[in-house]
Amino acid sequence: MSADRLCSASKEVKPESVSLCPLGAAAAPEQELLCIFGTGDFGRSLGQRLLQSGYRVVYGSRRPHSCGPLPQGAQVMSHTAAAAQSASLVFVCIHREHYDFLETLAPELKGKVLVDVSNNLKKNLYPEANAEYLQRLIPGAHVVKAFNTLSAWALQNGPSDASRQVYLCGNSAEAKEAVSEVATKLGLTVLDRGSLTAARELEDFPLQLFPEWRLPLRLAASLAAAFFFYLLIRDVVYAYAEEGKDISFRIMVSLANKVFPIVSLIMLALCYLPGVIAAFLQLYRGTKYKRFPDWLDRWMLCRKQLGLLALAFASLHVLYTLIIPIRYYVRFKIAESTISKIKENKTSVFDTTLAWRADSYYSMGILGYALYVLLGITSLPSVSNALSWREFSFIQSKLGYLTLFFCTLHTYLYGGSRFLSPSTYKWYTPPGYILSLVVPSVVLVLKLLIILPCVDRTLTRIRRGWERTDPEDDTKKSLLT
Amino acid sequence: MSADRLCSASKEVKPESVSLCPLGAAAAPEQELLCIFGTGDFGRSLGQRLLQSGYRVVYGSRRPHSCGPLPQGAQVMSHTAAAAQSASLVFVCIHREHYDFLETLAPELKGKVLVDVSNNLKKNLYPEANAEYLQRLIPGAHVVKAFNTLSAWALQNGPSDASRQVYLCGNSAEAKEAVSEVATKLGLTVLDRGSLTAARELEDFPLQLFPEWRLPLRLAASLAAAFFFYLLIRDVVYAYAEEGKDISFRIMVSLANKVFPIVSLIMLALCYLPGVIAAFLQLYRGTKYKRFPDWLDRWMLCRKQLGLLALAFASLHVLYTLIIPIRYYVRFKIAESTISKIKENKTSVFDTTLAWRADSYYSMGILGYALYVLLGITSLPSVSNALSWREFSFIQSKLGYLTLFFCTLHTYLYGGSRFLSPSTYKWYTPPGYILSLVVPSVVLVLKLLIILPCVDRTLTRIRRGWERTDPEDDTKKSLLT
Amino acid sequence: MSADRLCSASKEVKPESVSLCPLGAAAAPEQELLCIFGTGDFGRSLGQRLLQSGYRVVYGSRRPHSCGPLPQGAQVMSHTAAAAQSASLVFVCIHREHYDFLETLAPELKGKVLVDVSNNLKKNLYPEANAEYLQRLIPGAHVVKAFNTLSAWALQNGPSDASRQVYLCGNSAEAKEAVSEVATKLGLTVLDRGSLTAARELEDFPLQLFPEWRLPLRLAASLAAAFFFYLLIRDVVYAYAEEGKDISFRIMVSLANKVFPIVSLIMLALCYLPGVIAAFLQLYRGTKYKRFPDWLDRWMLCRKQLGLLALAFASLHVLYTLIIPIRYYVRFKIAESTISKIKENKTSVFDTTLAWRADSYYSMGILGYALYVLLGITSLPSVSNALSWREFSFIQSKLGYLTLFFCTLHTYLYGGSRFLSPSTYKWYTPPGYILSLVVPSVVLVLKLLIILPCVDRTLTRIRRGWERTDPEDDTKKSLLT
After folding, report:
1. Which of B81, B195, B374, C415 sits at 20 to 30 Å (Cα–Cα) from B60?
2. Domain of life of the organism in this record (chains A, B, C) (predicted)?
3. Which CATH architecture has domain B3-207?
């Protein structure tokens, strides 16, 4: 187990949890005795929880007093061999580096169930999984890998939802059954992952660092970098080269506030593009019984992450927009324009059309962002769990497309009539917001095609099992699918 | 089961989940054999989960290879009659449209437990529930409706909290007991809903579309529409009729930003009004042992939704307010006023009282909104679950009234001394914010009455079981209530 | 049980929940009969749930029809003695004040298991716990305290995650085992807290009011008050005393917007200071096997609350900052400065350095706040439960320090070159933001020291069990820890 995990656990343990143990008197003689090797945080928390669930617990440790108080009601034996012999199930809660000392206990551990709860600090630190190494050291024991995804803290404070699952693997079905029973009695749900060769996979679980976020994060970073340099050249470099002006200070706010909404809009559209592609693929194939290509499957699996990253960029865009009027540059420009108007004695006339366009632009942006936040809230695990399947699909699909529509309209209104003006195309390049409109517009048009009654009807039939290819055998084929 | 549900499930399944199955070797001979008809997403996920929990699984399917890989370790029989005969419990994971083919298997299915997991695409598609139809087709079998509220995705990735509950119903107590046992072994919690006549209700569960949000949403929409037209006439039409000015562009931001806070404040007050009415009803009746009128009960049940909608409107109000200084109209007006001041050589004096009032107005608004968001956060399922009863009641009641107080004060400060000015009352109508103050003011005054020590004491006694009507028999009566 | 709890429960019960009961016909004769005393909300909800889980239920009540409908399928006996005799397990769902009437049933209750589910309205209302009082009244019964942390509402709607745990205590191991069995069958997880002397502790659970928030809240309030008065003197009193100007209106927004970010930054730094201190303590001691001093332990335990309060203050700072341009005072000042520029015919030159500094300042603030919100979201129970240990530690530690760095940099940029100007130090006191920079700067410098490769290596070794003190006995000592 990782030292940091131990350490952080010990810091978060509530002080009163020490009194969680039952009276020794309550331990009837028929209760099963379990042995725990190691008195680190995990060993102590596990012992406490086992005692609370009615087991008797004996610790095997050479230094029982060196680290924190052990739970009341547990025995401690400094003679580890005796401790091992007293129970048929032994939890090994020590670091892999000290496993070699267990070799000396091989005779006493013969035929016992050894539960390996250890984790490593890094992936691929060792050539074989900890549990496999333990099995090699003590071939006579039945090693079961389990509990390594639980933290000491979760064990002590009662497991919450996500940490309620215990993965286990091992070569002996009986040993796994024995460990399952203990886990079930602790209020945990057991998932069997097969033989001990799966131990490596299980040991990698707690070391995972957002695997499903990697692709979307990389995409977001690439898009942001690409548009940053594109706009840097179009805005800052252009102004310096053509007009000799240094507007490099704009990088910090103005440029950032162009990159963020562009990336956000494109990524939001990329959330909905795979669904549209999948629908057209099903229409083209005339069946839902063919698997999608791998790239489409992978794309669909990261839609939630794409959407949340898009929301993050949209939120940055909102904050960067709201600070516009307190910026030094903006205040300077406004004062300058007022002063020049007075000096030149110009009178500007209020343009109602411009007011309509500007206010609509802001309104669409706010409504789009509000729906966006709603989508984000419903993707919180506790909220989405409370929704029925139809409610979740309504929000993520119907409201999702409405969000995309509002945000796209917001961007079109931003452009206004500037699309046609040649001065927009500095150095013959289109401004960033025009580029950002391509994907969302395509997605919206394709979606519009799909919800046409005739297309929608065919698609619904396909999704309910109907197939186009073989009309006469149709009903029979779709039986029992 | 709905095709869309199947489809969305298959898209979200993690690629590695295919390796979730235990070794075939681990399946000891004494493990129970279950049969699954249908190899769609739900059937496949169910089979995988059953295998993981130690059951043996046989699929009955005429097209086992047409859709996705089946879990390793499961048998597949294309001869469905043989599959049905091999197990005493059969999961029917096929669409209702194909149930008629099961009729041919009636002899083999006699005496078996048939678990109907199906859902429909819409409510009231068929005259009878799917499970009742199945029972009618195969009268010799014991049909149990169950698992239909679970998704294939939840089954595969381990059920989370909300999806941990399995509702079941059926006419045979033994059959229900058998299904309960399987569900419990899968880590699910069973809730028995009675006989098979409840099947329709169970089949409607996944088709629910925010039933508890309907009334609050309708109320919010009506209030918003009413105030929109009221303000449209008072502001835009008035300006056009009396002054000949076209200020229709104000609809997009200015008018919206009047409607949103008005609706928000009224709906927040409507959250707290039923509680106050209930308290006065209890005081008037002198007992808590009479049920509240139905309308009051229904009102109380949607307080959370009322509050969340009010928060949504308040958030829109905040966003619409914060973009004020970047609006074209506002910038134009400010520049114009500065220019006219210079031209007319007027000097305006700084008004400290006005500064106090304006800053207090903003401050109250921000503090009220901050508390509002806090209330919203604590109503997230995972947060409110972690609160003790007293903590939840403290936040929702004490902090709730404080929020209402801040927001009401914010609105009074907005009005300031304009309440008394006749020019406020265009066409003899009061401005919207005055109308929005009625309900909150009433609620706050009534609440103030209730927390007076003498009233509070009586109310507390009533809520603890004391009754006013029959003083001498008092203690006896409240025994065992 | 508290009257309010009952009351609020009855208000929130869904109307359709009454139909949750199974058919009477489904109740096979071998099902266990349980008795419930009291027909209040909790008693009714408990009965319903027990019936759903397959128990038979008999109510003992003298007034069965006075309060709400009882669940269908339950018997009701107005003769409480007969009801008590019929079952071996009796749930006492009545108020403590009416316990004395139970004394008359002492002969019938002898040898029975009595489950005390009651709560009090306040802490320390009575000299002894309700359950101990009940045991004293009926010494022949086996009293078990249980279920008091569940609400009637949770029982009826199926327990969610946090409310799934049942704490129980009692003097008889057999009685506790019997209650455990019932709880497990209801889908709850049991935690045994020992003998009946723990009843008081259990009865205090639902009365807890944010115990872990008290210290952080007190700290935040003290810091806010201290800086408020400090800045009041430095800004408002100074302006009045030295310049004779009344700028008291600034208290509402300007002053508040100085206090909030200062408190937020200091509290964010105080989140990370204990971790740094702990690391240096471990480095100094050369071992992780010595407990931290109590004050450090307590500090570490409230880091999450410190951080969330800091986030709340930061959010207020954001809102107060964003309304700056719509304030009357600000608009007046800007107009005044424009007018004076024209009158005095001054031309101000655009300062690119100032623009860089101002925009960087805003940018850092926004990025810091965005990360801050991300930290807040991941501390939501349902989100943090879904993270692996490594992911949680990555966010809370790596991203946490990045947040602190951004926010500190934001504050340094705010100061800019003003640090050196003597006019900053009115009455020889430093401005608030300079004071707020002390703790974060110290934390960042110490953290920088810790992540130096040489220090980091030693620390990692210590945290994995290595000890400096006794090098030759090193490996042996760290065995089995």
Report:
1. B195
2. Eukaryota
3. 3-Layer(aba) Sandwich (3.40)
